[in-house]
Each structure stands twice: as C-alpha cells, then as structure tokens.
Amino acid sequence: MLLLFLLLSIVLSILLLITINTKRNYWKKRGIKQIDSDAWHFLLGKCALFEVYKKIYDNHPDEDCVGTFVGYKPVLILKSLEDIQAVLQGDFQSFYGRGYKTNPRDTLADNLLLMDDYARWRLVRQKMTPMFTASKLKNMFPMIERCASDFVQYIKMNQQTRDNLFEELHTYFSASISASVFGINCNSENIMINPIIDMGWNSAQSLLSFNVKFALSNLFPDLFNYLNLKTFGDKRFIVKLFKKVLNNRRSVKARGHDFIQACLELQNEGMMKDTLSGFEITATDELLAAQAFSFFIAGVDTSANMINFTLVELSKNPVILKRLQYEIDMIFDNCKEQITYEDILKMEYLEMVIHESMRMYPPIALMQRMCTKDTVLPGAKIKIEKNTFVIVPIYGIHRDEKYFPDPDVFDPERFNPDNISKLVKLSYMPFGEGNRMCIGARFAHLQIKTGLAWLLRRYTLKGYNYTSECFEPNFFGIRDSKARYDLMARSEV
After folding, report:
1. What percent of the chain has pLDDT over 90?
2. Looking at the chain, which terminus has fewer C-beta neighbours within 10 angstroms, N or C?
3. Phi/psi at 485 (5° precision)
4. Domains annotated on the chain, with CATH
C-alpha cells in the first residue's frame, strides 16, 4: 500500500506538470468554461470525487457544461439534461465506453459488466438482463423476506450491533445476496449467522486501496498491468467457490429460481451468441463468476449505505417516521407478519421515503463515459473528440434546486403519485439511466424496501441530528460510516 501511495504521488506530480504545460487551454480554445483544478486531488483530500464535481456544478449555474481535467485527460462535466440524454441513450454508440481500464489477467475485473469491449459487453448484458425480471424477483422474494426477518432477529440476539448498525448492514446484504441469488447458506437456522460470503467494503483501508489502484489503472494502465495489480485484490477464491456452487447445483435434480439456475441454463445452451452481430462467447465458469462477483461489489456497500442514510434522515424527522411505521404496522398486522411480495408493493409511503433518500444520497453519485468516436452534443452544440471523458454529476443534479426546491430538505412528498409524474426527465436517476443502467436496480430496491420494513416493524429511531460535512473519498459511491442514530426496540419506547 505504501509503495502504491508513493508511486501515485510521483505519477500525480508528473501529470500535473504535463497538464500545466500542455493542456491548460484545451477547453478555452473550444469556447467552454474551463476549471484548471485537477479533479484527482480528492484522493489526497477528505471528500468524494462526486463532491468535487458538485462544487463545480453549483459554482457555474449558467453553463451547460464545464471543462476540467483528470490528470492530463480533458473531462467535460455535463449539466444540460438534453446532452446527458444524448450520452446515455440517443448517441449511445458514441459513448458506450465507461473508460475504465482493467488488467487482462484479472479474471474478475476484466469480465465485469464494466468492460468497454462493446461486442462482449452487449452480449453479456443481453444474457444477464433477464435474470431480474418481475417474475424472477417474485420467486426470489421468500428468501429476501426471510433474510430481512432473520436480520432483525440477529440484532435482537446481539444487541451490541445497535451501536454500529452500518457494519451489520454489510453482513445483512452479503447474506441476502448469497441466499436469494445463489442459494448459499439458505437452509441454515438463521441466515445471518456466519454468512459464507462477505465482500462488502467494510473498512476504510480496503476502500482507500481500491481508490489508489483504480486511479493508477486509469492513468497508467501499462504500468498497472506490468505490476499485475488486481482492481479488487486477489479474489481467486471467488472463482473456486462459484465453481463449487455450480457443481453442487448440477448434482441436485430440483430446479431453482435463482442466478445459479440461470447460469446452468446458459451453459447448457452452449455458445452465447449475439444474433445481430454474430459475436460469440463461451459461458465459462470464470465469466459467470465475474458476473456473480459484480452483485456483491455493486450491491453490498451501496445498499448498506442506502439503508443507513435512510435511517439517519428518519431519525431526524419523527413525523415522517411515525407515518411510515403506521403504514408498515397496518400491513404487517393485516397479514399477521406473513409478508408477501404483494404486501411489500402495497407500502407506498415506504416507496416514497426510499425514493427521497436515493435522491439525497444516490447509490451511484456520478457516471463516467468515454467518447468512442468524434461527435457533437446536441444541446450545447459542442464537438467532443474521441477518448474525451464526460461526467454525469448525478449528485449535483439531485441536489439542484431547479429540479428539487429546498434540495437539502428530506421530503418524501416529492415522490407521491401526483408529484412523481411531474419530475423532469433525467433529473432523478439513482441507479443511472440508459443502456448501461444498473442491471440489478430492481433487485436492490426490493432488498432495501424489505429490510427497512422489517427493521422499522421491530425498531424505532432517535437521532443525533447528524449531518455529513463531507463524504468518504470515493469515485462513484456515496458513503459515511460515521453517520449515527439511536436504534431502539419499539417495546422499549
């Protein structure tokens, strides 16, 4: 880690000199407002990258876009929703790349849906998308619901967990994904006890390590590959574990309704093929293990943060909390705590609360796209050159008073049935938008909703009026492990 920090410091210094000497007029020459500060400085600071971009977003209210730099690379921060629509949907062929570099010898990272190889990404995306249809979610729901009820029982039996629920939320989502998506540990007495897989970012050190390696891989990919660094560390045991799960399922005649069953069906079909392009891929255990790994990487920490921030806001808003618990109690009482998929769908106010929480604390706080061929943005009429990065500042948009009056106020009424239809298109996109929208968004939402329902059925909250001054350094996700509230059993109140 120390070597990586020293290396990165040297790299940043060199890049700063290069940028000062060669790139400082890049955006000015194109008639675009230019900010000369380098966005990479967040790595050495105490905030997240999306906060750096939000500050730029807020400081230039009259601009459709603002140019800046990431190292020596020009970056355009988009503000016009018309241009954002073009990048994410209308002109997707020019912006399909995320621009993230991976080590070809890194089995997991190089096969994730983050990949920039368009033909490979398109085919894998086609095969993964049907795995989270409404019918499949309904089939998975009994296990999702059991995980949530086991979680509140786990808290009851281990009362010290109330002191730092944030860490326990990682355990909950790891166990829930393991059981409901992969069928791992689903027959244990309590799914929360010793879950087999826990791949959440549970420590600041692991998050910092990821940030440093991610920066190095994008600034100097050749050096990153030469050092044979792995974006997520050495996770070879994940591939071994996944193969073991596949082999165990092959020996069982009963048909499942989870991701493992879908993987077996893909392999039984033979070569995966894109009918339009003719591109083919073999559904190897390694390729499918990478997709399985992505559910943990994308779903554990983001979902834990979502519940954590929701509880923080509810603890500061007792009127909202009381109304929400009344709705939850009514539905739980009517079904005698035998919660079904349809019961969860009936919790409309809980839905509003979650949407407002995701507005204030979007799971994906920014999106990056790389221009893959020269094009022109339709709104600002700006020519974008190949290999230029564009940024969609989701956190900035979600906190823009132009779209959400009093944006720092927690107000679930913004998302009541009458108001939600009035939202400006693309002003709210907590899981991203367009062709590369988060593939597991509906699954994550169902997990969050079910977990909150069971938690608030058994517990209530008292707040410290905690407000984050800044979030933890991160590229994309929004995180504050110091956020606190009192979690109290309702029987104790």
Report:
1. 40
2. C
3. -160, 160
4. 2-492 (1.10.630.10)
- Cα angle at 477 between 475 and 481, to 5 degrees? 110
Phi, psi angles (nearest 5°) of residue 488: -125, 135
- Has residue 150 got a pLDDT over 60? yes
9/3 Cα distance (integer angstroms) = 10
**C-alpha–C-alpha distance, residues 47 and 206, integer Å:** 16
Q: How many CB atoms lie within 10 A of CB 386?
A: 11
The pLDDT tens digits for 80-127 are 999 999 999 999 999 988 877 777 777 666 666 667 788 888 888 888
Q: How far apart are CA 354 and CA 415, in angstroms?
A: 9
Give 381: exposed, middle or buried? Use CB within 10 Å, 0-12, 13-18, 19+: exposed
Residues 6 or more apart from 368 whose CB is under 8 A from it? 98, 99, 100, 389, 390, 391, 392
Tell me whether strands 485-489 and 375-377 are parallel, antiparallel or unpaired: unpaired
Cβ distance 290 to 108 under 8 Å?
yes
HSE, side-chain direction, 13 A CA sphere, residue 125: 17
pLDDT digit string (tens) for 383-436? Answer: 999 989 999 999 999 999 999 999 999 999 999 999 998 999 999 999 999 888
- Between CA 339 and CA 155 the distance in angstroms is 19
Amino acid at 388: T
Q: What are the beta bridge partners of residue 67?
A: 34, 76
Nearest one of 195, 208, 192, 283 to 246, comparing CA atoms: 283
Integer Rg of the chain from CA: 23
CA distance 278 to 123: 10
SS3 for 226?
helix
How do beta strands 367-370 and 272-273 pair?
unpaired
Rounded Cα distance, 218 and 414, in Å: 38
CA 462 vs CA 317, 405, 490: distances in Å: 9, 27, 11
CA atoms of 148 and 146, how far apart (whole Å): 5
- In 3D space, the residue among 313, 333, 347 whose CA is nearest the CA of residue 451 turns out to be 347
Question: 79: how many CB neighbours lie within 10 A of its CB?
Answer: 24
Tokens at 371, concatenated: 């221009």
DSSP one-letter string for 390-415: EEE-HHHHHT-TTTSSSTTS--GGGG
Token output for 132: 């989270």
List strand residue ranges (DSSP E) for 320-381, in order: 367-370, 375-377
Q: Write the CB contacts of 133 (distance below 8 Å, at least 6 apart in sequence).
A: none
Question: Annotation-wise, does 65 bind a ligand?
Answer: no
Q: What Cα–Cα distance (Å) separates residue 308 from each residue in 137, 164, 348?
A: 23, 10, 20
